[in-house]
Amino acid sequence: MNLPDMLRKWGVNVVEFPGWQTRGWLSGYGGAWNPRGVVCHHTANGGYRGIDAPSLNVCVNGRPDLAGPLCQIVLGYSGTAYVIAALGANHAGKGGWANLSGNASVWGIEAENTGLGEAWPAVQVDAFHRCCAALGELSGFGPEMVCGHKEWTPTKIDPAGLDMNQFRSAVAALLDNGPNQEDEMNAEQEAILRDIQGWVKGNIAQAVGAGNGKVPLYAIAADTNVWVKVKPTTGTVDTAAVAAALVESLGDSLAAEVADELGKRLAGE
Ligand SMILES: [Zn+2]
Predict the structure, then answer these.
(1) pLDDT in tens, 104-163
(2) Which member of 35, 70, 96, 146 lies 3.0 to 4.6 Å from 101 by CB, making a disulfide possible if both were Cys?
(3) How many angstroms is it from 91 CA to the middle of ligand 1?
């Protein structure tokens, strides 16, 4: 899987910047390109001016004193990942982390932030974590290989305002639970889900009971939420066990529906 596809798998919105596939160095800056970790940066831009990624141009083309690309991913304020390079980039410089050193050994993410106390949007921080989880899966490393530039070298302060121990914990949680984990439900969502599950359980128990081993039984299909005919059953049916198993199997899809419905309501649709 390539870098943009892996990011998308981890729930990140991606813009593929033209030429990303061949931008960067196959060798140099510490050997052959072989990333085994990631260094997190802030861009130290001039502040949000209605542009999602004001540092995109400089990260692609570099500065007079530093050849581009300056990272592989520019992370916009919106949490959109602009993939600009697939190969080695100029970002980490001198220093090291977990026995890694040199730009050839690490991915670089430049997240848009002034570094002067500008608030980090939650959506951007979440995407920052997801990008690191994606890079971990892509290159086969764990959360312990994620560091801040300020940890790579004491001469840097980026990413300012982000606690890297908390950051690594968030990446670890993602890698443990996978890319498709739902956000935890709030109390209102849980109450709605319990209502729905109670209704499902009651109705399924009724239907199964009515079957009584002779009449074809009906249940709700887990994927479609429509009533479907199930194989006629003979003998004693443990209605409570069947209902419990069905409710269990419906848990995730119902939770997703509840979250979706709540989202619509909150958006005023
Ligand atoms: Zn940096």
Answers:
(1) 999 999 999 999 999 999 999 999 999 999 999 999 999 999 999 999 999 999 999 999
(2) 96
(3) 6
- Provide the CB-side half-sphere exposure for 3 (13 A, CA): 24
Q: How far is the CA of 103 from the centre of ligand 1 (A)?
A: 12
Span from the CA of 152 to the centroid of ligand 1 (angstroms): 9
Residue 8, classed as helix, strand or coil, is helix
Q: What are phi and psi of 251, to 5 degrees?
A: -50, -55
* Ligand 1 mean position, distance from CA 150 (Å): 7
Question: Measured in angstroms, how far is the CA atom of residue 160 from the centroid of ligand 1?
Answer: 10
Distance CA 177, CA 255 (A): 16
DSSP state of 27: B
How many Å lie between the centroid of ligand 1 and the Cα of residue 199?
A: 54
CA 44/CA 198 separation, integer angstroms: 52
**Which residue, chain included where needed, has tokens 């670890």?**
172
**Residue-wise pLDDT tens digits, 40-57:** 999 999 888 889 999 999
Question: How big is the chain, counted in residues?
Answer: 269
- What spacing in Å lies between the alpha carbon of 153 and ligand 1's midpoint? 9
Taking the C-alpha atoms of residue 38 and residue 134, their distance in angstroms, rounded to an integer, is 11
Per-residue model confidence (pLDDT) at position 49: 83
Claim: this prediction has a pTM higher than 0.85: no
Q: How far is the CA of 10 from the centre of ligand 1 (A)?
A: 24
Distance 220 CA to ligand 1 centre (A): 53
